[in-house]
Hints:
Number of helices: 10
Helix content: 40-55%
Strand content: under 5%
Number of domains: 1
CATH class: Mainly Alpha
CATH architecture: Orthogonal Bundle
Order of helices and strands: HHHHHHHHHH
Distance between the termini: 90 Å
CATH superfamily: Cytochrome c-like domain
Structural class: mainly alpha
Radius of gyration: 30 Å
Amino acid sequence: MTGRTRACALLLGGTVALLAARVVVHAQAPAAPAAAPAPAGPLKGDPVHGKAISYTCLGCHGISGYKNAYPMYSVPELRGQSPDYLVAALHEYRDGDRSFITMHAQAEELSDQDMADIAAYFAGTPLRPTGKPEGTVPKAATLCVSCHGQDGVAIAPMYPSLAGQHEDYLVRALDEYKRGGRKNPIMTGFAANLSDDDIETIAEYFSRLTPSLGTEPRPWTRLSAE
Length: 226
């Protein structure tokens, strides 16, 4: 092999080795992290569609003063409630965190969007807090108002408003939290320390507050898109 040929061979070999090294380095370099997906915002409820799919709900929640046959207590008022809370409640019924078989059967058939739509329909225009108590808050309810409001209107959308809610429904709900029928950890811890008299006092106080929750309109009431 001539000197010129040997030089060409060395140059070619060096070029191949350099290219191979670049390929290895590129292959070993860590991949750039993928962009994190944007967090999904809360679903926007459509009250018109909510009305269309809630005909079975209106059989109980559309009748003023309607009561369950067993156990006997008033079906809760929903008009004026926060849609966020109604969606959370439907999720708890669907997931078994609230042990009421009728509501579980209803909720397990609903998609998340269905829940948002039904909540928007039943809530209507949520109550607005005044921040002022009506009379003296009873001792048993002093902790309650920190979330449910001095006037019974919740301080944040994830909490339920209690103003004007049926007294017997509130008694039932607190009893379920106390005995494990509802599994919200905050309410379970709070209700565990309540006596039966405390529960009656709390329920009576919130049930008479105004402005109050109300009954959803009858199924034939016209609803315009908001």
